[in-house]
Write a structure and sequence with these properties.
By secondary structure, the chain is an alpha+beta fold. The chain is built from ten helices and ten strands. Strand 1 and strand 2 form a beta hairpin. The longest helix has 19 residues. The radius of gyration is 20 Å and the shape is globular.
């Protein structure tokens, strides 16, 4: 079987896991989703994703819990761990503490809105220690960016995309090279109405940067058929917060943080879908490395 066929199957598996974290994700069930035998699935998954299937499932469960703990202060701990398939408080606390270094109750207290990035380091005792890093820029700097930002709540249309999966932020540029080369071969790129879009399947706030899944995409008029590692993807229509920025790449994190703060302050709730960025200009063509970009957050 070709490597590209494996990638297609593993993408299907990743989506299934993401949408069924509360279920009993047995190896046999997940392997069947990807049309694999359980015996071969372990090895193929680790080669493509970079971690074992069990490690991936646990990490996704704990990351989802971390987001709930930091964003939803009213939801009980029992509700949170039940939603991701844990049957007991003690088991959930043990797994969460192993991943982040502190129990979930303490995590919730230490995760106010002015902290944004969570990372792990190994201490002298080889135990994971959690570090809550403040924004790279100050709150005042975020506010300065937001002062020049146009924010709207609007209905976004359904969009057909040609998509290349990137696992790890370090691989995003290569993914875009692939989708652009595909666009050139189809005589779609460059084009007056061509838009490039990044779709975030993980949050960089809780997922290590080398494991974040980002789809590098090109907007197309009609659904495409899979070719090599270029896959069809559809962004659903729906209600979105859209922040329009003119910024550098170094300001993206602050811009996202500011937009999520705005969402919380206005009382909007995040909808189960994927945030994305729409690029209107190329930063490489601007003398200061700036680009026009829309950040889109799906909301209820």
């Amino acid at each position: 079987m070709e490597n590209l066929e494996h990638i297609q199957r593993i993408r299907k598996v990743l989506d299934y896991i993401e949408n069924n974290l509360q279920e009993d994700l047995r190896l046999e069930t997940i392997a069947k989703v990807g049309l694999y035998s359980p015996f071969h699935f372990h090895r193929i998954f680790k080669v493509i994703v970079g971690e074992t299937i069990q490690d991936f499932i646990i990490r996704k469960k704990v990351e989802k819990a971390a987001l709930q703990l930091s964003k939803n202060k009213t939801k009980s701990l029992t509700e949170i761990y039940a939603e991701i398939g844990f049957n007991s408080h003690s088991t959930f606390t043990k797994v969460f503490k192993k991943h982040y270094g502190i129990p979930p109750t303490q995590f919730r207290k230490l995760a106010p809105e002015h902290f944004s990035k969570i990372s792990q380091i190994n201490g002298n005792n080889e135990q994971n220690t959690v570090i809550f890093e403040q924004y790279i820029c100050t709150i005042q700097q975020i506010q300065k960016i937001m002062e020049h930002t146009k924010i709207e709540v609007k209905q976004m249309p359904e969009m057909n995309l040609a998509s290349v999966l990137s696992i790890g932020m370090q691989n995003v540029e290569k993914a875009y090279e692939k989708v652009i080369n595909w666009g050139i071969s189809k005589k779609l790129f460059p084009g007056e109405n061509v838009k490039m879009i990044s779709v975030y399947h993980d949050s960089a706030k809780v997922t290590p940067h080398d494991k974040v899944r980002i789809n590098a995409c090109m907007l197309v008029e009609l659904p495409i058929k899979r070719e090599d590692d270029v896959f069809p993807e559809t962004l659903p229509s729906g209600k979105y917060i859209v922040g329009s920025y003119f910024i550098t790449l170094n300001e993206f994190e602050q811009a996202w943080n500011g937009l999520f703060l705005w969402m919380n302050e206005k009382g909007y709730q995040f909808r189960k879908s994927y945030p994305y960025e729409i690029y209107h200009t190329n930063y490489k063509e601007h003398p200061e490395g700036k680009m026009s970009v829309d950040f889109c957050i799906p909301i209820i």
